Each structure stands twice: as C-alpha cells, then as structure tokens.
Amino acid sequence: MALIPCPECQAEVPVRSKICPKCGTLVRPIGRGGKMISFALAAVFVAVAVVALVKGPAP
Ligand SMILES: [Zn+2]
User: Fold this and answer.
1) Residues spanned by the domain of 35
2) 13 Cα–ligand 1 center, Å
3) Ligand 1 mean position to 25 CA, how many Å?
4) S-S: 12 plus which of 3, 17, 34, 57, CB 3.0-4.6 Å?
5) Centroid of ligand 1 to alpha carbon of 5 (angstroms)
6) Cα–Cα distance, 11 to 21 (Å, whole number)
7) Cβ–Cβ < 8 Å for 14, 1
8) CA of 47 to the centre of ligand 1 (A)
9) CA 32, CA 39: separation in Å to the nearest integer?
10) Structural domain tally of the chain?
11) Alpha helix ranges (H) inside the chain
12) Ligand 1 centroid vs 12 CA: distance in angstroms?
C-alpha cells in the first residue's frame, strides 16, 4: 500500500485512510485527486457552455 507523508506531523499515512492516524489531519493525495478536480471543473465548464448555446441570447 502506498504511503504519503502527513503535512502536519510528517508521519507516513496510508493513501486509502485519508486521515493521519497520528494527529488526525485530513491528508489529501495530490496526484489523482488533482486530476479528478480538474476533470470535474472541465465538465462543469462544458455543461455551462452547452446550456448557454442551447438557450441562445436572451430576448
Ligand atoms: Zn499527522
């Protein structure tokens, strides 16, 4: 299992736990989480653009 360092106490935290077992800090994995957030933002942006195109200019 992959371990990531806790941002608060530098303890090694299992990626799947998400919370440091030593100090209780929420640990966020950077790699996949960041990509997921970027994908979500892109999806929202596309959805807004499609809605704007379908609605057309306001009368
Ligand atoms: Zn910690």
Assistant:
1) 3-55
2) 8
3) 6
4) 3
5) 8
6) 9
7) yes
8) 38
9) 10
10) 1
11) 31-55
12) 8
In angstroms, what is the span from residue 27 Cα to ligand 1's centroid? 8
CA–centroid distance, residue 31 to ligand 1 (Å)? 19
**What type of residue is 32?**
R
CA end-to-end span of the chain, whole Å?
Answer: 58
Structure tokens at 40: 């979500």
What is the model's pLDDT at position 32? 57
Instruction: Give the model's pLDDT for residue 28.
Output: 74
Residue corresponding to tokens 């957030």: 37
Task: Name the pTM for this structure.
Answer: 0.44
Match 């959805």 to its residue by tokens.
Answer: 47
CA of 37 to the centre of ligand 1 (A): 24
